[in-house]
Amino acid sequence: MHQLSPARRAVKARLPQRGFPSWDRAATRAAVIDRDTPQTGRFVGREHRFPVRVYFEDTDLSGVVYHANYLRYMERARSDMLRLAGIDQRAAHDAGIGVYAVSEVALRYAAPARLEDALVIVSRLVEIRAASSRIHQRVMRDGLIMAEGTVRAVFLSMAGRPVRQPRLWMAAFEQLVWAQDQGETKGAE
What per-residue confidence (pLDDT) applies to 15? Predict the structure, then answer.
C-alpha cells in the first residue's frame, strides 16, 4: 500500500474527501465540462432565471454597478431565454428572415449591486403581439430587487421594417406568456 508523506497527509486532511477533483475522476471530468460551458439560465415554470456575477469591469469608481450594465445583464438574460425556448436568432438573421430590436425600455433602479455580488435576472414574457413581445425583468440579489424594467422587442425585416414573428416562435411564446393572475413563482428568491 502506498504511504503519503506527512506533508501530503496534512494537506489531504484539510480538504473534503468526497467530490474533491484530485480523488474523484468523474467529478473532475464533470467540473471541467461545467467550467467550459458558457453560462446559461433555466426556466422555473414560465419564468426564466439567469445568474450573473458582478465583475470589476461592471462597476464605476464608487464600486457599484454602472447603471447601463443592468441593461447588459437584462439583454443577456433575454437572449438566453429565447435560446432555451428554441428561438434561433442567429439562424433567422443568417437566413434573412429578420432580427429583434429593442424599441422601448422602462427601467427603475431600487438598490445598488456591488463588486462580486451574485445576481439573478428574472424574466417574464408578459405580452406577445404579431411583431413584438414585451418582457418584464428583475435584477435580484438574495431576494432583493436591485433594478426592474420592461422591454419591448420588435421583430424587424432585414430592411428594418416591423414584420410578423415566425409562427413557430409565436407558438413557443404562447407557452411562456405570464398571465397577470399567476402570482409569484414558488421557489423564487
Answer: 46
Q: Look at strands 144-156 and 99-109 and give their pairing.
A: antiparallel
pLDDT digits (tens, 9 = 90+) for 72-130: 999 999 999 999 999 999 999 999 999 999 999 999 999 999 999 999 999 999 999 99
60 is catalytic: yes
Q: Is 127 exposed, middle or buried (0-12, 13-18, 19+ CB in 10 A)?
A: middle
Name the active-site residue from 60, 80, 88, 181: 60
Residues 172, 85 contacting (CB under 8 angstroms): yes
Specify burial of residue 82 (Cβ count, 10 A radius: 0-12, 13-18, 19+): buried
